[in-house]
Amino acid sequence: MNDIEEVLRLVCNFLNEQNMRYVIVGGIAVMFHGVPRTTVDIDIILDMSDAELKEFTGFLKREKFNVDYDTMRELIHDGSHSTVFLHEGLIRLDLQGVNSEFDQETLDRAIEVNYSDCNLRIGSVEDTLINKLYFQGEQDLRDALGIYARHKRELDEVYIAEMCNVLGILKSWVSFKEKYDDIE
Amino acid sequence: MKSIKEQVRERRDREQVLTAIRARALTGLDTLRIGLMLSNTALKVAGDKKHE
Fold first, then answer.
1. Chain B nearest CA to A3, separation (Å)
2. Termini Cα distance of chain A
3. Domain chopping of chain A, boundaries
4. Helix/strand/coil (H/E/C) assignment for every residue in A59-102
5. Does B40 sit within 8 Å of A115, measured CB to CB?
């Protein structure tokens, strides 16, 4: 399998069927809310018990992902990411648990969209923007700019300011807004 | 005088804003579809290279 759309649907269909809580963030969420670009990874925040994680890991193994339950459990409990490659290819899943108030909000405020007969739970426009502002890389900031310019008129700026304050990036948000204030 | 790096960054930012404004005419599902198609094309090229 060398098709990111197919992998996205495969994973989300499983999570939906098992009623597992998750939200897709990162590049896939940027495609939905901002300017589309390429990505080879699917970033997912998971809110799972150990039993659910075991079930999910078993599913990924059956589908030829290079994954190991103990390693994944440890990484997710440690608050870091678990990167899981599909077979020998480039497509990968970047999985993380709920490690912060922001992760919890991202999960709770997720939107559900139906894409090619598959329900996808995607981070809200505000949370996707905050996520990109938080990471501050060149690509992240360009993604944030795309989201901001596309949705400027309808963003919940009160929520964004509050969450940026929690994350310690309120100054970055204020200067970002000032810099791109002239966008109509 | 701005460095070439800075000039390139500013130009890319301007292009990003213009593209985002055009994307207002599309739905999220439209742009998700475009992004996934672009990604699959890139993956296909990478896969073809590997098998050359």
1. 6
2. 42
3. 4-123, 129-179
4. HHHHCCECCCHHHHHHHHHCCCCEEEEECCCCCEEEEECCCCHH
5. no
Burial A113-142 (b: 16+ CB within 10 A, else e): bebeeeebbbbbbbbbbbbbbbeeeeebbb
ipTM of the complex: 0.94
Q: Is there a contact between A31 and B35 if contact means CB atoms under 8 Å apart?
A: yes
- The topology (CATH level 3) of A4-123 is Beta Polymerase; domain 2 (3.30.460)
The model carries a pTM of 0.95
Look up residue A65 and give its amino acid. F
- A7 in B contact zone (CB under 8 Å): no
Determine the distance in angstroms separating the CA of B28 from the nearest CA of chain A, rounded to an integer: 4
Tokens of A178: 């000032």
Q: Do A180 and B17 touch (CB under 8 A)?
A: yes
Cα A58 to Cα B32: distance, rounded to the nearest angstrom:
28
Sign of CA dihedral B37, B39, B45, B50: negative
Q: What confidence tens digit (pLDDT) does each residue in A7-43 have?
A: 999 999 999 999 999 999 999 999 999 999 999 999 9
Q: What is the pLDDT of residues A151-165, one digit of tens each?
A: 999 999 999 999 999
B23/A30 touch (CB, cutoff 8 Å), yes or no: no
Structural domain boundaries in chain B? 4-50
SS3 content of chain A, % helix, strand, coil (to 5): 55, 20, 25
Distance CA(A115)–CA(A99), nearest Å, equals 28
